[in-house]
Structure formats: structure tokens, C-alpha cells
Amino acid sequence: MILHSLGNVRGLKSAVIGKIATSPEQREELRKDLVLLWNGNHPPEDSRGYLAVLSSNATPGWELNIPIVSSVSGLDYLSDGDIVRVAIDGFVRTLYRRNSPHNFILMTEQCNSYCLMCSQPPKKTDDRARTHEHFRLIDLIDPSTKELGITGGEPTLSRDNFLSLIRHCKKKLPCTSLHVLTNGRLFSRDGYAQELAGIAHPDIMLGIPLYSDVDSEHNYVVQARGAFDETILGLLELAKCSVPVEIRVVIHKQTYQRLPQLAEFIVRNLPFASHVALMGLEITGFVRANMETLWIDPFDYQNELRTATEILDLAGLNVSIYNHQLCVMDPGLRRFARKSISDWKNVYLKECTGCILSEECGGFFQSALCTHSSHIKPFHVA
Predict the structure, then answer these.
(1) Which CATH superfamily groups domain 104-369?
(2) Which CATH number fits domain 4-94: 3.30.300.30, 3.30.420.10, 3.50.30.10, 2.60.40.10?
(3) Alpha-carbon torsion 2, 6, 9, 12, what sign?
């Protein structure tokens, strides 16, 4: 699934964010928040008040009194209530899909780490001005949405913007759980954790990565001096303030060998963690440039993965295994496997054809089409 498209734009003077309508809205007063998806051969009878019209037709000669973006392709999955951003150059990006459980806000592309396997390589652009667009998106999201992710970059870099965003989510989406992906480093100082806790969001979880029980190894993976100490202190500060945290471990050649020791470290020092996610590698972003340093066939670290999982499970911690295929995993670990890959980038290989466990298996990131385990095979009825 592609979450963006580039069309031919006419009449748009500034970017707009609006909800998709697949059929005309009769009440003109409601159109101010709508982008009409219209693929008919003739223009809509009444287009007044819409933010824009999107059409897959090639340069229709319609004379409309609102902006139109034509030749928009690949967005046929859009349905009523989905939300898009339309830029002045005709670039259309899907920001939210009402029927998907995998929606997120990319708060910033800046980061204070430079992880070897980063799937969203950081950029040094000042994108704090995007905050008003995030607020606009939150205003439009269906309040019945169960979960919303907040990610980056590092979303906590702009403290005021981050805290304001959490407050706005609490106000506009009180029944929506928030899952924030952060390296947690900034919560180690200046009362940041206390201020977040003071918002009293009813359902928030911070997913924080920890890659080793050895400080130098963690710092090497994230390419930042002092990151291990800041991360641990951040976790402890959040725990002291009763902010729920999830510990996330991406497994690759630099982290797999000490997985059991890391599990012991978590059990002894971070037993308050609400969840521990042991995660497979996504072959994208910086991973492509660091394949020799990072890639190991998941089949080859199953002993370490099994030992670490058993340590965490026996200690009573909630542990899951993400981004792994059932046919590669130790059979004893399959009960910990989760279908964790976002629906828009989740695929299965031709080797999976006929597998009776495909509905239970998490499958692959789309990027795994180029590199994946050499032990993929379908399960058949005995």
C-alpha cells in the first residue's frame, strides 16, 4: 500500500488537511473539513465549500470554484473519514485511515541519536512549525479510534510542542490510547517526566529502546555518547512518576549475543516495564548502508532469543516477539509471536504460499523482499 501520490494541482494556494468524502455532502456547512474524492466523468454538481477535489482522471477540464488535484493514482483504498494532506505542488499524503489500527503522527524528523538501523533517518530541518498541522489532524480523527502512535525522529525534542500535543490528544481523543516511540533520553532531567505525568493522560505508553546491558554497546548502536545512562535514568524517572513504559529491543548482529544478559538486566533493574518487545530488523533506512554490520539470519540467534524470552517470562514480565516469521522461530517461542507489522507495509513471500499458519504469522516488512531468512518454508497439514 502506498500512502502518497503526486497529481496535477490547480487553484491551491496553501496546503490543506481534510477528511475524505467519497460522495457529495449535502450540507454545505460540513464541507469545510472535507476533501471530495471524485472519479466521475463529469464534475460534481455542487463543489462549493470543499477544501479540494481529488480525481484519478487525467487533467479534467472542469471549471470548479475550489482547488482540484487530478491524475491522483494509488489511493483507491481511501474511504470516508480517512484524512489526507494536500500540498501546493499536488503531493497527496494519507495521514490517517479510519479502519486501520496502525495510525501514527510523525511529529519530527529530527533526532538526538543516530541509530545504525534507523528506519526513519533523521533530518536537521526545523519542523516545529508542523505542530499546527498535527493539531489539525487530531481535531479531525474519529474519536472512536482505539490507538494512535506518535513517532519521529525523536518526538520529545521540542518539549513544549510534545507536551501540548499530548494535552490536545487527551482533550480531543480521550478514549484513544497513545503509543509514543521515544529514546527516552530527555526524560532523565529537568522534570520532563514529572511534567508529562502531570498531564494525566488516561492511556499512554512510551516505547523506549534498550539494546544492551553494556553502556558502550548501547551507545555504539545509537551512535551517541552517554545515551545508555540517559536512557536508564529516563526510564527510572518515568517509573517514579508512574508513566507506563515499554522496552524495545531490535535484534541484529550487534545485539543478539547479549540478549540473555540484557533480559537479566531488565528483570533486575527495570521490573516496572509494562511490556518488553524483542524485535526483528526492518531492512530499510540506515540498515541498507550497514547490512554487513547488522544482518544476521534470525534462524541463527534462536538460542539467545529463547533464553532471553524465558528469563523475562519467568520473571512475570509481559514479553512479545515482533517482526519474526513462525517458520524461523523456535517452536517454543511461537506463543510470544505477534502480528506487529503495520498493514500498509506487511507482505508475504511466494515461499509462504499454501502455509496453514499464514493467518497467525506476522509476515514480512515489504523491504524484506530483498533480504530475509534463508529458512522460510510453509507449514502444511500433517
Answers:
(1) Aldolase class I (3.20.20.70)
(2) 3.50.30.10
(3) positive
